[in-house]
Structure formats: structure tokens, C-alpha cells
Design goal:
Elements lengths: L1 H10 L1 E4 L5 H15 L14 E3 L5 E3 H4 L1 H11 L11 E3 L3 E3 L36 E6 L11 E3 L2 H10 L22 E2 L7 E4 L4 E3 L9 E8 L16 H10 L28
Length: about 280
Amino acid sequence: MNQFRKDFLRDNFVVIENAFCRKLAVEWVTNFNQINGIEIDNPSTWPEGGAKMYPSNQQMHMSDFSPLAYQVICDFLGGENQIETRSMKVSDGFNINFNVGADQDWQPPGPESTGYHKDGWFFKHFLDSPEQALLVLLIWSDTEPRSGGTFFVPDSVDFIIKFLHEHPEGINHTYNWNRFSEHCKDFRELTASAGDIVILHPFMLHARSNNPSGRIRYMNNKCISLWEPFNFSRPDNNYNVIEEKIRCMVGDKIENFQITSPRVCTPDKSRLEITEKE
């Protein structure tokens, strides 16, 4: 566990290879395709638009789905009792990239790419927001280069930590997070194998990429939530990885951090509607 923690604190993400059973991935994807009438070798059965998110048909607790990823997540966040129960469920509610931008020239990740964002459309964003403690990507199909793998920006985390620290009043989820990519230098394309799990810092900018490969990319992303906000001044100094990272970036003054407006969150994680006052 210590190596995963060190890697995450250094890189703002970690890849757990072979985290869940490849056979299970094949079974769930096959069942999903049958339910939705999708034939992987017949693009005429693919929906228009190139990408789509689907509701789930089956679920499993993370501890059964991937004991290793479960242990890593619990270690990162201070134990299972700190983690909102429902956020530890894994489902086949896939986020699928069929053929986004297949008719365009493929461009590598960079500051000129569009659509970079910070996840969390169901709450107002504060530095200590518990609603999104980790962003966990479950890889259900082999994702080779230029095949719709998520673009992500590891060094964006530092900029967003500083920004949220400067705005204790909170930031609406509709904010133009993409603007931070202009200052970043570390742009990556996610490539992985079915059965891998990728854990990203919750402040990580990421974006959808084009998929001209002719192969469907099956993935879903999990929002791991906490029961309570992050705490940057723990008497026992037993900080989770997000608290430790933020303390490292901000310094001692982080201990006096307090939000200055009410938290806002939808109870069912549906999209938060923004009013003019907000």
C-alpha cells in the first residue's frame, strides 16, 4: 500500500494493473451488449453521437469486485468508515466511446485540446469538498493508443488546489475549468488493459478524446465520496492522501481554512441547477 500512496502523492494518479478479473469484464460487457443490442463488429448497431453513458443493470461492492483496489482506496482515504457507502458500489453503467471524432485527424493531448474539466456536476466545489474524494476509472476493454482513452493532466491538480484555496466561497460546477490547461505541461493519453483501475486526484483535469480506431472503448468512472469534509488540521496528523497533498501545496496556512458560503449538493447526485444568485 505504501508504494501506491507514494506514487499517488508524486504523480496525482496511480494505475492498479489487473485490479479486477478480465473474465468478469468480458462477461459484463457481453451481457451489456446483448441488453442494448450492440454488436462490436457492426457499427450500424452503435448509437449516433459517438459516445454515450448508460444506466446500470448489475452491481457489486468494490471489496468483492477488486479486493486490491478496495484496500488502496480505503488506505488513501483513512478507512472504509470514512467513505460514503453507495460510492463503493461498482456497476455496468458504462461510459462508452464508440467512434467520437472518427472522421477527424487524431490529435494528441495538449493545451489546445478542448473539453478539459473537473468532475462533480452535483455539488458546489470547495477545497475541502467531500462529495468527490477520488475519481476512479474502471477499464472494461483494452484501450490502445488513439482509441478513445481519456486525456488527463496531472499537473493541473496543483493549479486547482491553489485556486480553490483562494476561493473559500466555493466555485460552481459550471466554472470554466478548462482554462487551467493553458498553464499545464503534463498532458497524457490513458492507455490500459481490461481489468486495470486508474485512481485520479479529484481535482485532475481530464477530457474525452477522439476514437478513430474502429474499436469500442468500455469504461466507467466512479466518484468516491466521503461522509465528512477534508480536515486539514488533524490533532493526530493522520491525514489522507488528498489532505496531505493539499497541505504540501498550501503550507501551514491551510490549517486556518474555512469555507465562507453554504455547501450545496443534490441528494441523488443529479446535476445541480445553478440560479443567478449562485
